[in-house]
Specification:
Length: about 190
């Protein structure tokens, strides 16, 4: 039985609300934050039109994705927001034991249009060069403050250690071993 069909029992409804609130924590932090904004936009969009966000009709989901597609065109964004919105809708329906409205053809068309037509407007990011890193380090060295030194250390760790920002935040002094010509960093939880 889907969570949406629990009847009017107050305890069950309260527990349903708790489950929906905590369910994103069951995924990696990046996944939960990845879904938060698009799901909030989907709920607000549905509420503004007087339609139900959960469960969401397949046609309503497709129209929301189309609205996201138009927003991406106007803001010159890539397909990411449309794909994230589709994923967020799917995730929140899955949590409730509901069939995802994004599995149908209507939503598939919106996703495919986003993939095919928004690529050219996406911002292409190029990797950071060693010259850029050295230029930033030089500016931080001129500052000479402790926060600037900490930032410089984080940049060096991240760039030369190929670490993600989340990994850098969790590096502890005792997890590092410094040698004459290299350093070892032990990261407990990493992709």
């Amino acid at each position: 039985m889907p969570l949406a069909d629990l009847g009017n029992d107050a305890v069950l409804q309260e527990l349903r609300a708790v489950l929906l609130a905590v369910a994103p924590r069951g995924r990696a932090g990046a996944t939960a934050s990845h879904h938060a904004g698009p799901w909030r936009r989907a709920q607000e969009w549905a509420a503004a039109r007087g339609v139900c966000a959960l469960p969401m009709d397949e046609r309503v989901a497709a129209l929301f994705l189309t609205a996201e597609l138009q927003r991406c065109y106007q803001a010159q964004l890539g397909p990411g927001p449309v794909l994230q919105a589709s994923s967020a809708i799917h995730f929140h329906h899955w949590v409730c034991g509901l069939e995802s409205p994004t599995k149908g053809n209507f939503c598939g068309v919106a996703r495919e249009v986003a993939r095919r037509t928004l690529r050219s407007t996406a911002i292409r990011r190029s990797p950071v060069s060693t010259e850029q890193v050295n230029a930033v380090l030089l500016l931080l060295e001129q500052d000479g403050s402790l926060p600037a030194d900490i930032m410089a250390a984080a940049i060096v760790l991240g760039f030369y250690g190929f670490l993600r920002a989340d990994e850098i935040r969790h590096v502890e002094w005792q997890a590092m071993r410094l040698h004459a010509d290299f350093a070892e960093i032990f990261i407990i939880d990493s992709k």
